[in-house]
TrEMBL record:
Start and end residues of each stretch annotated as Disordered: 109-134
Keywords per UniProt: Membrane, Transmembrane, Transmembrane helix
Originating organism: Frondihabitans sucicola
Name this protein carries in UniProt: DUF4333 domain-containing protein
Biased composition (Low complexity): 115-129
Membrane-spanning residues: 15-33, 39-57
Domain DUF4333: 138-208
Pfam families per the UniProt record, alphabetical: DUF4333
């Protein structure tokens, strides 16, 4: 078989792995958007695709220098681009996940079989172990629950620390809020270093259990 009719297998394989790596990135980004959580992801296929593409590119150029058709050079270049972009995206995703401990909803009450929120407990974090849903109200003598700023700030801080494995340096919630299902209010959470974020707190039952979404 002559070189001009040869198949540049490394270039072909590199492009295929580059396309696969791009699909992985799309799936991970989609999962991040759908679950509001950043994932640690690292694909060896992407590294293998980059290596194959580089080998294929060098092989094609060597054939060109020898006066033959540079079979697979375009595939190799496309593979290098796809794999490089995929590696950058995966590295960024992983770096953010490791830096933040995973961006995800915290203090969310679990759903029942029919999809409604249950106020008793919530499962979060990498271990998936259940934790008590935050409570922002104090039980009164007549059996009703009344919003408490101090209770809210303590509960939000504890939920944040349990989920992201880092206790905030400060939490500021509104002075007064009604304890009614679906009422939403913001709390400002400050972490080490002075960085502040807003936690959207939503009341899920009359006892003051809440769902907390950190942005």
């Amino acid at each position: 078989m002559t070189v001009d009719k040869a198949i540049n297998r490394p270039a072909r394989n590199g492009l295929a792995l580059g396309i696969l790596s791009a699909l992985i990135v799309v799936l991970v980004v989609g999962a991040t958007i759908a679950t509001d959580r950043i994932y640690v992801v690292w694909s060896l296929w992407t590294v293998a695709g980059l290596v194959c593409s580089i080998v294929g590119y060098r092989r094609a150029r060597r054939w060109e220098e020898q006066g033959f058709i540079p079979v697979g050079v375009r595939r190799a270049i496309a593979g290098i681009i796809l794999c490089s972009v995929a590696l950058l995206a995966q590295g960024t995703e992983t770096g953010l996940a490791l830096a933040t401990g995973g961006i995800q909803p915290i203090g969310r009450a679990p759903t029942t079989d029919n999809g409604s929120s249950a106020a008793g407990s919530s499962s979060h974090g990498s271990s998936g172990s259940p934790t008590t849903a935050p409570v922002v109200a104090v039980l009164q003598g007549d059996g009703t629950s009344v919003y408490s700023q101090a209770q809210a700030q303590t509960a939000i801080g504890a939920a944040y620390a349990a989920t992201l494995k880092a206790a905030p340096t400060g939490v500021v919630c509104p002075a007064t809020e009604p304890i009614q299902v679906s009422v939403t209010f913001p709390c400002t959470v400050t972490i080490t270093g002075g960085t502040s974020t807003v936690a959207q707190v939503t009341v899920v039952d009359a006892q003051g259990h809440v769902e907390v979404q950190v942005h």
